[in-house]
Amino acid sequence: MGGGGHSRSIFTYETLVHAISGAAGSVVAMATFFPLDTVRGRLQLEDGRDSKNTLATICELTSKEGPYTLYRGMIPVLQSLCASNFVYFYTFHGLKMLRTRRNQTAGNDLLVASIAGIINVLTTTPLWVVNTRLKMRGIGQTSERNNNEYNTLYDGLIHIWKYEGLRSLWAGTLPSLMLVMNPAIQFMTYESIKRRITTSLHDSQPPAWIFFAIGAIAKTIATALTYPLQLVQTKLRHGHKYPNLPPNAGTLQILVYMMKKQGMAGLYKGMEAKLLQTVLTAALMFLTYEKISRFVFRILLHRPILR
What we know:
Layout: H1 3-32, H2 34-45, H3 54-65, H4 74-98, H5 106-135, H6 144-148, H7 153-164, H8 166-169, H9 173-178, H10 181-200, H11 208-238, H12 251-267, H13 271-302
Helix pairs in contact: 1-4, 1-13, 2-13, 4-5, 5-7, 5-10, 10-11, 11-12, 11-13
């Protein structure tokens, strides 16, 4: 096999390993910390709910609605997350390799992660719209028909398309595109810190807790910078319940309205649960991703591929 063909096949195969590892890592992490995601969604959407701490909200939901409510909508979330992270990791590592290994800087990582994020948002937003509806079922939906006629991702996609039009499947796309900077900042920070650590260790394997810690730091920075947009995105996907705003109110209208009604604190409602959930989930995702990808690459490097 010629050199060009070999490098091209390594490129596609390597990105595939990264994509599968990233998707698997995200599923393991989200399944582990799923109740925290439920709490975060409830705090963001239920304006009447007191801003209790995460543990108090978990106890209250369990006693009032049963433990099942903490895991409501988990399967479609995991399916969407798997698809979303596969697209993201594949695009990120594919573009990174195209830009060559020698040119790895924080700015480069930010650019590549932003492009990967935009591609991811445009392809997977409909999955997240259905998810938000399924997960938050029972919180004053816009209509009963929307509420109970589907239980799976596929049925939800078809139902929303049929009754509300294609546009509804891409609800919240604008804040999602603006939120591309969240994973972009996260990946840039993660890759930068990881590069420094591996260089200082002279390319030897860092211990597992290092990846967990870097993932946590990267996600904390990204979430703190972009939280108000995430809040608006959830409201757009679910359908806001503000009486003085038109149903098709945009990102800026909702942001301004929330500022007027609830002040700055309103823009950060549910952030404690969000930080706890996303930081732990991201940290565990990166740890699992690193472990799986290293394991697969080690097998491939030490064992001849049978044809």
